[in-house]
Amino acid sequence: MSQKNVIVAQSGGPTAAINASLAGVIDAVTKSEVYDTVYGSLNGILGILDDHILNLSRQAADIPDFIHTLKFSPAMYLGSCRYKLADYEDDDSTFAFIFHQFKKYNIKAFFYIGGNDSMDTVSKLSRYGEQIGSDIRIIGIPKTIDNDLLATDHTPGYGSAAKYVASSILEIAHDTYIYSVKSVTIVEIMGRDAGWLTAASALARNSYSGAPHLIYFPELPFDKEQFIEDVKAQLKLHNNVIVAVSEGIRDKDGNYFSAAKPTSDQFGHAQLSGTGKCLEYFIKEAIPVKVRSIELNVLQRCAAHISSLTDIEEAFALGGEAVNSALRGDTKCMMILNRVSNAPYKVEIQTADITGIANAAKAIPRQWLSQSGNDITPELYDYLAPLIVGEPDITYKNGLPAYLPVDHLNPLISAPIYRKDC
Amino acid sequence: MSQKNVIVAQSGGPTAAINASLAGVIDAVTKSEVYDTVYGSLNGILGILDDHILNLSRQAADIPDFIHTLKFSPAMYLGSCRYKLADYEDDDSTFAFIFHQFKKYNIKAFFYIGGNDSMDTVSKLSRYGEQIGSDIRIIGIPKTIDNDLLATDHTPGYGSAAKYVASSILEIAHDTYIYSVKSVTIVEIMGRDAGWLTAASALARNSYSGAPHLIYFPELPFDKEQFIEDVKAQLKLHNNVIVAVSEGIRDKDGNYFSAAKPTSDQFGHAQLSGTGKCLEYFIKEAIPVKVRSIELNVLQRCAAHISSLTDIEEAFALGGEAVNSALRGDTKCMMILNRVSNAPYKVEIQTADITGIANAAKAIPRQWLSQSGNDITPELYDYLAPLIVGEPDITYKNGLPAYLPVDHLNPLISAPIYRKDC
Fold first, then answer.
1. Considering only CA atoms, which of A197, A141, A122, A160 is closest in space to residue A337?
2. Same domain (yes/no): B253, B206
3. Is the predicted ipTM greater than 0.90, yes or no?
4. Which of A190, A289, A386, B138 is 20 to 30 A from B1 via CA?
């Protein structure tokens, strides 16, 4: 009897939880009585095209604590890609090669862990498979710190990034409160098109600290004059005002504040200012007060040591359920989280048809933002609060988190054997 | 019999460990059979001048887990100041008022937790005290993430910041390794005059990751052309090159790279580029490769959730020993750590005469930097490694670190009753 194997890949930007979904897939395959080997495709779909394939079943058997360590390791054990498949209606040669590779490895199911673009790949591959009469299951497993995927209540990776943002705002608040001189601190948070991660900054508030005192979202037009007024009003109430701002805020005409025209510094280099830096200068120009801007940068998506256990466990469960769904015959779908209740917090795992999920994004509903547009509502707070609960069981060695080695990623020595860039 | 009280204050920039020293002082006074009450002066020496005084003994008695929570809380429970006492030879009225306040509160010992400037205050106050024949003990307790104080092997606060830097570099490395396209990531680290914190980035290296691949220190002149060559050489060896750079690097003429002349962005604002941003543009100009710069910013000094337990415990012990030293009659001194051995790591707590410590800084010795000037030596690695070991016992509530409330700091309502700015 021929082998029944599965293959899994990761794509898009890193999160602290995407390896937990990978661990969930490996764990479920290992426990499955149907599937034999789980392969990992390196650098997303490119690994299948380039024949860069890891035998994850063997790694799970050989490397001590593999599943546990992988579950709590940041970024992407299999590497990523930013590769979008062309429409097979135009040219199906890439698709034909992928299914050729599936056959070579006796693949019965393909799991793609990623965001919007990855779900586009899931959608195209499953439609192509349908067309050629393939019985290979093609299932998407969501992840993105942006929380902007349709169909699912929230996305794995979001809760951990949200926890990082909230704890950073809290620690920055402690840092700023020590001086009695008035100050404004701008914290720039990721999320170009949706303000979910910026909204999570509100979770930092507690009995003694109201930071962030103002929050600005990409969902609403940003008005510079109103912003100055907002800050002035807060400075009457607080010595140290902390502002959370999405990198994606735009003016009423849709222009990003981060997309500064290249200007020149003293070395003659093009200079792009970030959103936070831009707001810093708005304040400096208008209010005589100490101002600082902080860009949380990539740590908000890779600081696994302060990930949310709720997030990690959900990501792990989604990976495992994806395997079970494939065994039940599901395909052309994405695994989703359906929230049953906020308190007690309860979610169910289901599947949703992939059609319509890919290439669309979910913004924060207007009614979840305050009337003034510079804060969230209690409803959004209640939605957010359960997602950051719980601390990961990170092992430290010599004072540093002991993550799973990724030396198979850097550098990838072997040359591509097949690549059709689109 | 009159009361025998002590007063403690904090000054300078925040660290994750400065509250541990405060907790150590409070704990030792509480256990002492000589001292009655420990007072806290808000915003450094200014609290004594302005009569902003907290009764810390009462707080320790009233607030559950006060000592433990304080020990692991970031920034400064008593607030800070940047206030330098004038020379009392010129005008001793401020000094006279401070000793008047000491008398009012029956103060027998004053502990000042801080860096260079705070040790200047300790030095001046103890010399003035000596002159007027006071028996009040004046003792400095060191802290600074910069690790640049003389006399002590290292400074409390440094180990925690070093741990944050090293784990951030490790997590950033995981983040960058996922893409197969070549990239350079510049990480800007605090430390204007000494490269100790930048050097700690080397602790991120492990069996699978050589990041940071290059390190640049303020101790050595930075040469742009050499930097480009260094990066090019590393890009031949690694897909993703990570560079750690001190904010304080200077060219051979002593010009900071961060001190850009004000230029204008599209909004017409003055624009200062950071060191990391500056190096980012050096690369962009010279090498066709993806480049990103990351500024670790204030989180490296306030992210208490990933502080070093070694650091916290040493800071706590220094606070306690300062009280014991005062009881033994020591004054006009700073508490110091004397390293007995690296492996096993062992330090002793001693005192050092304050004279000559204040207003001087300790750079990394040249022989602890590599010949090429872009790395550390094994000797420096061995010095650094023990300082980041151990994880703090942080309590989390609703997914966030539960730190000690600091609402007494923000805003300070009462008006100054005495202030002579110098």
1. A141
2. yes
3. yes
4. B138
